Prior knowledge:
The complex is a heterodimer of chains A (324) and B (327). Chain A is an all-alpha fold and 324 residues long. Chain A has helices at residues 2-7, 9-27, 34-59, 67-84, 90-113, 119-138, 150-154, 165-183, 185-195, 197-202, 207-233, 244-254, 266-285, 293-323; strands spanning 159-160, 163-164. Chain A has 14 helices and 2 strands; from the N terminus they run αααααααββααααααα. The longest helix of chain A has 31 residues, at 293-323. With 327 residues, chain B is mainly α. Chain B has a two-stranded antiparallel ribbon. Chain B has one domain (50-308): ABC transporter involved in vitamin B12 uptake, BtuC (Orthogonal Bundle). Chain B is globular, with a radius of gyration of 21 Å.
Amino acid sequence: MILKFIKNRDFILFTIIFIILVAVGISNPNFVTLKSLSDVLTDTSILIILALSQMIVILIRAIDLSVASNLALSGMLISLLSQIYPDLPLIFFILLSCGIGTLLGLFNGLVIAVLKVPFIVTTLGTLSIYRGLIYFVSDGKQVYSHEFSDSFLSFIHVRFLSLTSLFWFAVCVFIIIYILLNYTKFGRNIYALGGNPEAAKYIGINENRYIIAAYVLSGFFAGLCGYLWVARYSVASTQIAIGFELTVISACVVGGISVMGGLGTVTGCLLGALLIGLIRNALPAIDISQFWQLAISGAIILIAIIINTKTEQRKEKSIMLEKD
Amino acid sequence: MNNKILLNPPKNILNIFYKKEFILFLVLILLIIFNSQISPYFLDLYNLIDSTFLFSEKAIIALSMTFVIIARQIDLSVASIIAVSSCVLGYTTSIGLPTFYVISLTLFSGGVCGAFNGFIITRYAIPSIIVTIGTMSLFRGLAYSFLEDQYYNKFPDIVVKLGSDYLFGYIPYSFLTFIILTLCFAFVLHKTIIGKRIFAIGNNPDAAKYTGIDVDKYTFVLFTMNGIFSALASIFLSGRLSSVRPNIAFGWELQIITMVVFGGVYIYGGSGSILGVFISIIILGMLSFGLGLLNVPGVGIIIFTGLLLIISIGLPSVIKYFRNQNE
């Protein structure tokens, strides 16, 4: 029983996070203060939200490479709006950002499910289309912090229990997706579809509907993060979140979401995002040059994929042995 | 009824209209007519030849990427391999190695990166898209950690000449290399047993394995080759830009895959031709050249390429849908 618990993936991830915290804390005690840790959580919140929504897409054997461009386009559009009408209520901006994201996600889903364009081609295409549209609507200009209203920027820095509301957003998204995937028919069907699409079709799951739903959810949360990102960094430019989709996917992969579909837990995904966020924040704290960060995260992704695949293959083998 | 057509194609001259390559060729002709009507500078021979500089490097990688995609794999790390090889090129020049060693080491570094991809994919049986997403940031990250915020601007004379000079004052060396490579690749893919086996692997890897093809060996070699050709492209690119930063060729993987897929190569492997890819490369090159003459900014071209990619693959299913409606 205890052995089984120790071999549990989520437990291993949790232990790794703990070890890193202790190791970094020893070399730089300032890193493990309450304030600094809450900063790390704030910094990782957007990654957590995007990783959790990307997880749904990966579960059905697809990938959404356009999330970062989607985020940037929604963020830029509401920034341009707030430049003209700074006095609109905040909730309107948030909902609008989510709405734009949802539409962009719906476009992905429709192209994949209805036009049958492979997901990799579609999302690679929309990755550049959405990114290109940002230049188009903004004329390549930036929206600076003084052009936003105060409530627009200050809302996510409101603290509750000494954690920022940005982090509470991530907590809410975690709870929603946890319930959605574990306790609803929708979630079970997503796992079924990813585990064995053929079998899922025979029990009457409409594949297209779930593909569209997964991309719509991914788009919705990307839109939400569009507001969060712009408000957190107080600037909207054409370059925001460029290349972030790879960080999101690596968080999922590190969290044990299988790219073969149908395998992975919501908690694992959360821990994967936390681990990546922790490493990104810990590297500067122990004086590793920022130029090394990309290489290190690339190496971590590769190692995580290899470990994942090995454990999956071992499981398959043991199932076959039991049959004999 | 569809099956009958597939089984016994009637010997009819009209059949040529159903060929993807023919449709691409028509698109190319229309594009040239359209462009020459819109801008008087388009049909200028010097302009046309000079415009090949902008796509020849990508085109060289697109040829070997065609092999990779036909074998049901994909390589998203090519642009990052360019970054690594360009750094090797700059570094080996800066420590004063002779030109021969500089070029061989550059090609070797590309081969090592490609072999690394191939090793992980075949040894651990992981889908290439995920592995190359990982190595895409790993290789790019290596280039960043090596160069940091520095750059190289000294290269051997022959590299600069290759990147920016013309043979007999007319044909750019990069374009010439591309043409020669196209012929070689077309021969290997369509006329040799190697090509037949690559198609077989792409159509059904398991069946290919049972017929005695060493699928892993082919996959490994294809990725290594893709790395070497990325390094070759990096030589031309560095020579042309005469400056190497770690962000060199950023985003090229998408453009290269667009070239291949727009040329009628099926993204899940097993079908496609070098001729189609060749025409698609010329179309995309002429398109961005034409749009450039019309002062459409680079961003417009990015949006256009993305749309073209989706439409070119989505169109057949739309046509099929309407055809079914009519029946």
